[in-house]
Amino acid sequence: MAERRTYASASDDGRAAAPKAERRSIDSALAGSPMTGGRDRLDYKPTAVMPDVKVVKIGGQSVLDRGRAALFPILDEIVAARKLGIQVVLLAGGGTRARHIYSIASELEVPTGVVATLGKYIPMQNARMLQMLLAKHGGLYMLPDDFEKLPLYLQMGCIPIMSGMPPFGYWEKREEGSRIPPHRTDAGVFLSAEFLGSPRAIYIKDEDGLYTDDPKKNPSATHIPRISAKELVERGLPDVVVERVVVEYLPRAQWCKELQIVNGLKPGQVLAALQGEDVGTIIHA
Amino acid sequence: MERRGRKVAPFFFFGGTMAKHIMSSLVGGDGRTHINSRLMRESLQNRDVLSNTDSERDLQIFPDVSLVSIGGQSIFDRGKDAILPLVDELVAIKRTSQHKIVIGVGGGTRVRHTISIAVDLGLPVGGMAQLVGAMEELNAILLNTLLAPHGSMPMQRDHFWDLPLYFDAGITPIAISVPPYHFWEPPPEEGHLPMHGSDFGLFQLAEVLGMKQVIYVKDEDGLYDKDPKKHADAKRFGKVTLAELMAQLPEENILDRELFHAWTAAKNLKRIVIVNGLERGQLTRALNGEDVGTVIVKEDARG
Question: How far is residue A99's CA from residue A94's CA, in Å, rounded to a whole number?
Answer without folding.
Answer: 8
